[in-house]
Design a protein that fits this description.
The chain has a 5-stranded mixed β-sheet, with no helix packed on it. The protein has a 4-stranded antiparallel β-sheet with strand order 2-29-28-27, with no helix packed on it. 0% of the residues lie in helices and 54% in strands. The protein has strands spanning 9-10, 19-26, 37-40, 45-50, 55-60, 65-70, 76-82, 87-92, 96-100, 106-111, 119-121, 128-132, 136-141, 146-152, 160-163, 166-171, 176-181, 186-192, 197-204, 210-217, 219-225, 231-236, 241-247, 250-255, 259-263, 269-273, 280-284, 289-294, 302-308. β15 (160-163) and β16 form a beta hairpin. With 315 residues, the protein is mainly β.
Amino acid sequence: MLTLPGCGQAQQTDPRAPLVLERTIPLPDTKGRIDHLAADPVGHRLFVAEIANGTVDEIDLEAGKVVGRIAGLTEPQGVAWLPAQRELVVACGDGSVHFYDTDRRELARIDLGNDADNVRVDPRNGHVLVGYGKGGLATIDPVHHAILGRLALPGHPEGFRLFGARAYINIPDNGSVIAADIDEGRQLARWPTGLHRLNFPLAVDPSGERITIAYRLPAALAIIDTTNGRTLSVRSACGDADDLFLVHGYVLLVCGAGHVEVIAANGGSARVQTAGGARTGLYVPELDRLFVAVPARGRPAAISAYRLNLSSSQH
């Protein structure tokens, strides 16, 4: 079984901690909330959507510094890297979706109406999927920068994940999780969240048989059976979570309360301190690193880069 030593608060510098702070990368001239991150693991680059700042920063991970910035955006929220085209996608609060080349020159822009948010890339075909508006998921052809289809939803989509043709989508303002077929453009099932609300982050088990969801009210972590929508387990968790990742049998839950909660398969957990308001992050499998966005709150904005130390957390 997997266990974590000292199931409580772990210091970033503790060599036994499940996450060890490797580097802090400053984000100069960045104010307010930071939203999603994207990575180009081959080029060792990280992209940061600075929603309140109207900017997207490009970080050279080897140099540990910002090397470029896209400015003048309206609430940049979702970002994704397209390895086949070597382009960056940025989705913004005004409904616009932008495509940039490696020199951060805009190649194309698509208007989805309003509130373009989370972005995912379908690994099967490279299609770009963007949640937007009061209830929609758009599929975009990244080669021709054209909309291929739209999926109607019962509310604004927050966290969503893909598994083959299936999409699992959190709709917090509708109190539900939606299962959909993105190839056919239709909803397959709606699973109410009941007394648990504000379901934002979501991850799919590698088998596709379960999804893990974090709720903010009350703060909880749930596992749901994707064959029937039945909740298999619920446990308390940290609050204000905006990202979660399933890594090597662990759950990494990034929480605005100021820590990452690391939960083992047997239920043991440890909390690695980050900073207040740091609720968004990105796990990059190719680098086996977790990056956490730290907003400016009486301190400069930064990206915290963590080396995963999960093997030493077993005994």
